[in-house]
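Support request from a user on the community tier.

User writes: "When I paste my structure tokens into the form, the page sometimes reloads and wipes my input. The last time it worked, I copied everything first. Here is what I submitted, just in case something in the input itself triggers the reload:"
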């Protein structure tokens, strides 16, 4: 058993790694990005407004995309191998503007992101007297875009980081001053190109714009969105919230953990014992009134959606019998004045209806599964043998039928640990509980990648632990199961 547990624990980080890769790829290849803003139109329809500017030179927009690593390819970086033909054709397409606006907008943003990996070719276009002046000016804009760097952010910077930020600010100020304007003459544009040539001669190699073979290999693997994100995950840095960089994802999750833990684990444990009890009752009274009546009740419960049950509980139970309808506890000033037993009672009163609303559907489904499991176990040879030996019916149910039927229920509930961080959006919204359901729902709407990725990682981790706990439970429930 110990060897098996050690092997599973060693495989856990490997499994989590591939889960992170899959989820990260799906999220990043989904249409849109965090720079998109969701708004409601006058007709009540959701609309997305794409952020950004023509050549992606807006400072705030660039800082936002840099923070999320959106200026890099997702898994592998082949941009240093971009051909001169691609650069020329892209500049021409952007200048001719013969394609739909959305396609040109996306191309302009992508080409701006690629600019720092194709600086030598952009320099060649800028200095080519045979090129059209409009194309050369476009190359200047993307050259400047490629040369711009983002400062090191934070309130506790080292002296070295402060010096680096000063250098970055000076370079950025110089580069932006060389952008062509509508009032520049051809002579002025040529002078700007000369100044950019000198700047590149002084800084091009030092800033890595001309990588050698091994530097390209390093860029291929490490200059990617996934590499940047995974390097932070290894240090347990899951980033900050999109709307408030001062709040970390881990801190916000920790603040909500007790709510989600209570509203997920408690119903799961209650469901396990209740569905086993009702499953035994239905199976032992098969094709009789208890079986038919319970089957009918659970079928009705399974068919009623939660957004119908939750308001019904609020209106017909809470308001009539004086139960709380919002929050996890009473207001803080009241809750802090209570004794420990009174606090426990206060929490129970507040979460009773939310737990019923979360639990009833799962209970209905798991009870019918438990009935089937009990019937199947009851027909096994070892149960017939126990009856033939004259064992009491209660002992047979407890030692043979109940324990073996529990294995099926444990298997079904094993993955439920993964939903601890998911909560229940409808229940949490209606009962005004500050849990993960609403938290992650808002993150999806806002395209808050850090929160979405953390929910996927944490949910997967808890699911894997749940399955490991289920395997261990198998050996307890059925001594015949061994992992040796």
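"...and here is what came back when it finally went through:"
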């Amino acid at each position: 058993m110990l060897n098996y547990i050690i092997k599973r624990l060693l495989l856990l980080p490997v499994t989590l790694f591939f889960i992170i890769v899959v989820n990260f790829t799906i999220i990043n290849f989904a249409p849109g990005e965090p720079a998109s803003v969701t708004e409601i139109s006058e007709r009540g329809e959701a609309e997305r407004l794409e952020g950004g500017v023509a050549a992606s030179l807006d400072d705030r927009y660039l800082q936002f995309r840099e923070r999320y690593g959106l200026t890099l390819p997702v898994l592998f970086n082949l941009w240093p191998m971009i051909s001169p033909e691609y650069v020329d054709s892209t500049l021409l397409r952007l200048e001719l503007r013969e394609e739909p606006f959305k396609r040109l907008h996306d191309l302009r943003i992508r080409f701006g992101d690629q600019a720092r990996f194709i600086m030598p070719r952009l320099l060649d276009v800028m200095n080519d007297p045979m090129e059209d002046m409009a194309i050369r000016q476009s190359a200047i804009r993307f050259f400047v875009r490629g040369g711009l760097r983002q400062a090191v952010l934070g309130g506790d910077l080292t002296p070295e980081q402060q010096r680096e930020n000063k250098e970055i600010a000076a370079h950025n100020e110089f580069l932006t001053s060389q952008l062509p304007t509508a009032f520049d003459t051809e002579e002025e544009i040529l002078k700007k190109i000369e100044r950019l040539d000198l700047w590149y001669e002084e800084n091009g190699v030092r800033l890595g714009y001309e990588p050698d073979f091994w530097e390209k290999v390093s860029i291929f693997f490490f200059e990617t969105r996934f590499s940047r994100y995974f390097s932070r995950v290894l240090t347990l840095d899951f980033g900050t919230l999109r709307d408030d960089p001062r709040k970390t994802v881990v801190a916000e999750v920790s603040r909500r953990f007790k709510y989600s833990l209570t509203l997920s684990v408690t119903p799961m444990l209650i469901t396990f014992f209740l569905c086993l009890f009702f499953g035994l009752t239905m199976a032992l009274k098969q094709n009789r009134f208890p079986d038919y009546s319970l089957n009918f009740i659970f079928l009705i419960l399974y068919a009623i959606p939660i957004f119908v049950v939750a308001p019904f509980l609020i209106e017909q139970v809470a308001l009539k019998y004086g139960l709380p309808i919002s929050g996890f506890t009473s207001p803080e000033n009241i809750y802090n004045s209570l004794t420990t037993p009174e606090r426990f009672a206060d929490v129970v009163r507040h979460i009773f209806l939310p737990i019923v609303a979360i639990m009833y559907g799962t209970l209905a489904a798991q009870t019918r599964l438990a009935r089937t499991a009990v019937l199947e176990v009851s027909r096994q040879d070892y149960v017939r043998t126990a009856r033939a030996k004259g064992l009491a019916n209660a002992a047979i149910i407890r030692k043979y039928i109940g324990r073996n039927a529990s294995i099926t229920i444990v298997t079904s509930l094993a993955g439920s640990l993964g939903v601890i961080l998911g909560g229940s959006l409808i229940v949490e919204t209606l009962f005004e509980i500050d849990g993960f359901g609403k938290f992650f729902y808002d993150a999806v709407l806002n395209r808050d990648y850090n929160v979405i990725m953390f929910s996927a990682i944490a949910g997967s981790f808890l699911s894997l632990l749940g399955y490991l706990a289920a395997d261990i439970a198998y050996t307890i429930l059925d001594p015949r199961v061994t992992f040796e």
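Agent notes: The reload is a front-end session timeout and is unrelated to the input. The chain is about 70% helix and 0% strand. The longest helix spans residues 340-378. Escalated to web team.
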